[in-house]
Amino acid sequence: MHKTRFIPAVIPACALVLALAATCLAGGFTLSSPDVADGGTLSNRYLLNGFGCTGDNVSPALAWTNPPAGTKSFALTVYDPDAPTGSGWWHWVVFNIPADCRSLAQGAGNAGGALPAGAVQSRTDFGQPGYGGACPPQHDAPHRYVFTVYALDVAHLDLGPDSPAAMVGFTLHGHTLGKAEITATYGR
User: Fold this and answer.
1) What's the chain's average pLDDT?
2) pLDDT tens-place string over residues 151-187
3) What 3-state class would DSSP assign to 97?
4) What is the maximal distance between C-alpha atoms in the chain?
5) Burial status of residue 21 (CB atoms within 10 A of its CB: 0-12, 13-18, 19 or more)
6) Are 124 and 92 in contact (CB under 8 A)?
7) Where would I find the beta strands (DSSP E) of 51-175?
8) pLDDT surpassing 50 at residue 13
9) Nearest one of 40, 20, 5, 31 to 134, comparing CA atoms
10) CB atoms < 10 A from the CB of 133, how many?
11) Sign of CA dihedral 100, 102, 103, 109
12) What is the dihedral of CA 151, 89, 168, 30, to 10 degrees?
């Protein structure tokens, strides 16, 4: 019987090839903002006006490029994983953004904001739909605010404006072709 000798050096090489293939398949799906710098600090314009914070509570402008092939719609979330709740804090949830849309204007998440036709904002952890800016507890270390755009394999999620963020997240999980993120911080 012939014994095959396993060569450990093959494992890192295979891992590198798989990682490069995944990057190529992702096609460079990116999220950017003229208002929020990845790794930067949120300005007063995008902070909550409430809970002891005195920001302008305006949703930032966001743009995305190079979605994966087969994208039929987009969704957007803003999430604070550092909120002292045991489950983080959802600041903004939007879905059913049409596949031909590549940006949201500043203020789109606010009352009277210009969302694309068919897009739905659902309930955040503030208890209602729409953008709610950052306002971490005083004296906490700065919190992270993760802005994520999801490319979805369906044109429409069968959810409404009263759907809780966790339900939307669960539904997104089963339909995501790719996602792109930027993360900003804020502390007080």
Assistant:
1) 89
2) 999 999 999 999 999 999 999 999 999 999 999 999 9
3) strand
4) 76
5) exposed
6) yes
7) 53-54, 62-65, 73-80, 89-98, 103-104, 120-121, 143-152
8) no
9) 40
10) 28
11) positive
12) 0
